[in-house]
Amino acid sequence: MSTPIPTAPATITPAALADALRQLREHTPLVQCLTNIVVAQWTANVLLAAGAAPAMVDNPEEAGGFAQFASGVLVNTGTPYRETYEAMRVAARSAQEAGTPWVLDPVAAGGLPVRTAFAVEVLEHRPTIIRGNASEISGLSGGAGGRGADSTASPEEVLDLAQELARTHGCVVAVSGAVDHITDGEQVVRISNGDAIMTRVTGVGCSLGGLMAGFAGVVEPLLAASAATALMTVAADKAMETAKGPGTFAVALLDQLELTTPEELAERVRL
């Protein structure tokens, strides 16, 4: 006899996702992004298109103070330098002290020892959400990583690790993949929107971390991670209706992040 597939938590409904998007656009959360040089402009544009306000404050002198009044903070380890590592430490610590929600995106964790050690180190500052692909979540949990920033595992394969990571650190863990899995350690949300072409545009995953930080500034963490994922993937579905390849897809994705209404999000999301 097969095991029944759990349904989404009762609190994570299409209507709840739609309301989260309304709140994001009503409050325009200020998102501090300490992210990698490859995706900084793209991440800022994604946040603007969705309805949030980006602030790329990533130096040690300003990062801590800014994290105290930001709506949310993103820490992304994609292209780390000594100075940015220090800024990330300061921002994570300051966010924890101020009660500012923050997102850890441990790019290439498990594959590269220095950034793996850093990502494990900042877990002591209790991120609100951890977002990564399956191999990064495995690497952060002490398992094998992937091929650089590319995953060699599926979200289903690391769900147990993701749940344990969430329980241990009191956070939400969002695992990106063909079917996104989002968990608070007990509840699991699965979202099956999106298209494989998303992996052909640099920064879609990294910017999703910033989007989660924005939503976390206006709604609770499990809903924030779910709403960000739903918006990104539903917008991707809509973008594919006109895209001819990665270039036109990228432009169309930004357009659809702005054009997708709460009602469309509720209608098109596949929970």
UniProtKB/TrEMBL annotation:
Its EC number is 2.7.1.50. Pathway: Cofactor biosynthesis; thiamine diphosphate biosynthesis; 4-methyl-5-(2-phosphoethyl)-thiazole from 5-(2-hydroxyethyl)-4-methylthiazole: step 1/1. It is an enzyme of class 2 (transferase). Substrate binds at M56, G203. Keywords: ATP-binding, Kinase, Magnesium, Metal-binding, Nucleotide-binding, Thiamine biosynthesis, Transferase. InterPro entries: Hyethyz_kinase, Ribokinase-like. Pfam families: HK. Signal peptide: none annotated. It comes from the Bacteria. It catalyses: 5-(2-hydroxyethyl)-4-methylthiazole + ATP = 4-methyl-5-(2-phosphooxyethyl)-thiazole + ADP + H(+). Its cofactor is Mg(2+). ATP binds at R131, S176. GO terms for molecular function: hydroxyethylthiazole kinase activity. HAMAP family: Thz_kinase. Catalyzes the phosphorylation of the hydroxyl group of 4-methyl-5-beta-hydroxyethylthiazole (THZ). Belongs to the Thz kinase family. This is Hydroxyethylthiazole kinase. It comes from Luteococcus sanguinis. The gene is thiM.
